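Subject: design request, 172 residues
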């Protein structure tokens, strides 16, 4: 490593010392930051290894396999963490789609029942009107035809009446 005085070309010593101190502070702050991160990491790892659920998972064949391959375990952990949001969004979309389909199906079924009910009501009303008209016509025919025969063809009705009366007279 070069002396700070040599880098400056023999200039101001105070300036060179200041530069050296700044570099040393940077180096020491980086190493202390790295050391702190390492300590935190070890603390986290110890806490995870002491957790009974984690110990149970790590005692399985898969856990032992991942313990022997930490890079694969880290990749699996990152993949799982990064895939959680898209999978969650997809499941939310699927749930909303299912709910909307069910609601839409219910509304569609209600619409079909409404149309079917209105059609049935129309058909039944038509049948009722038809039967009313037919009964009026048939009743009219049953009432009108004997009256017409009595008024316009009295001899036909009198023969029938006389035939009906005669067997009764013959029996006496």
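Subject: RE: design request

Done. Sequence follows.
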């Amino acid at each position: 490593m070069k002396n700070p005085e040599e880098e400056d070309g023999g200039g101001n010593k105070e300036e060179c010392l200041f530069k050296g101190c700044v570099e040393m502070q940077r180096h020491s702050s980086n190493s202390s930051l790295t050391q702190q991160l390492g300590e935190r990491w070890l603390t986290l790892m110890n806490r995870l290894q002491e957790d009974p659920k984690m110990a149970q998972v790590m005692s399985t064949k898969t856990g032992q396999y991942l313990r022997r391959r930490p890079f694969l375990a880290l990749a699996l952990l990152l993949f799982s963490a990064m895939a959680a949001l898209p999978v969650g969004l997809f499941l939310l979309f699927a749930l909303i789609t299912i709910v909307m389909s069910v609601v839409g199906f219910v509304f569609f079924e209600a619409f079909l029942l409404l149309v079917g009910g209105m059609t049935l009501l129309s058909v039944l009303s038509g049948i009722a009107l038809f039967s009313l008209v037919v009964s009026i016509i048939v009743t009219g025919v049953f009432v009108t035809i004997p009256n017409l025969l009595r008024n316009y063809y009295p001899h036909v009705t009198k023969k029938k009446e006389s035939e009906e009366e005669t067997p009764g007279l013959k029996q006496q």
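The longest helix spans residues 70-152.
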